[in-house]
Please model this.
Amino acid sequence: MIVFDLVCADDHQFEAWFASGAAFDRQAKAKKVACPVCGGTSVSKALMAPAVSGTKKKSKDAAPAKAVMAEQAGEYMTALRALRRQVEQNCDYVGERFPEEARKMHYGEADRRSIYGEASADEAEALKDEGVAVNRIPWVPDHDA
Ligand SMILES: [Zn+2]
Model:
């Protein structure tokens, strides 16, 4: 069974149950559906519910989506903090000498080891151009400010 909101030629709105959408079409065509107010048989489905309730649902759905995004951002920050800890524990900090140290290792002038430090975007690009393997990682603060 399916319920339709119907409207007659005189704008009386009423609900009626049908076995199916096709059953309504058949009965309405055969003028077997009559308005309970005026008895008119020119009835059609009222245009209302879908558009309105659809809009409401959308705005309701927006809130959970935002919450999920915030959660993912939190996970991302956690992952970056873990990465930072890993780098700090396993690599030597060389500060601003990073480009210089990276080059020395690249050209075999120094033993290869894991280092981290600061390099400007230009320096990082220059290193890459020379074929030096460098990764830029977002350096997040250890704790939330
Ligand atoms: Zn009517």
Remarks:
- The longest helix spans residues 49-90.
- Confidence is low (pLDDT under 50) at residues 49-57.
- The first strand starts at residue 2 and ends at 8.
